[in-house]
Design a protein that fits this description.
Layout (H helix, E strand, L loop, with lengths): L6 H29 L12 H26 L4
Helix pairs in contact: 1-2
Length: 77
């Protein structure tokens, strides 16, 4: 018999997966910048601040999602 996960646990797992994906993207971008790839100079270099800002926004949203889940679960977590 398979026990269905509670809704909050599904949300928690999804948020954790989102955080891992965003961290992977940040890591890939930082490695690319350090390698001196072709996008680190010229017109396309202007995109990097926007990409980093968007990823930081995503991570902030995930943190707020986790705080909301904690409130739904209660102080016992």
């Amino acid at each position: 018999m398979v026990i269905k996960k509670a809704g909050w646990l599904d949300n928690f797992d999804e948020t954790c997966q989102d955080i891992l994906e965003d961290a992977f993207l940040l890591d890939a971008l930082s490695l690319y910048l350090f390698s001196g790839g072709e996008f680190t100079s010229g017109e396309r270099a202007d995109c990097f601040p926007y990409v980093f800002r968007r990823l930081c926004g995503y991570l902030s949203q995930h943190a707020m999602d986790l705080q909301g889940l904690r409130k739904r679960i209660g102080p016992d977590l």
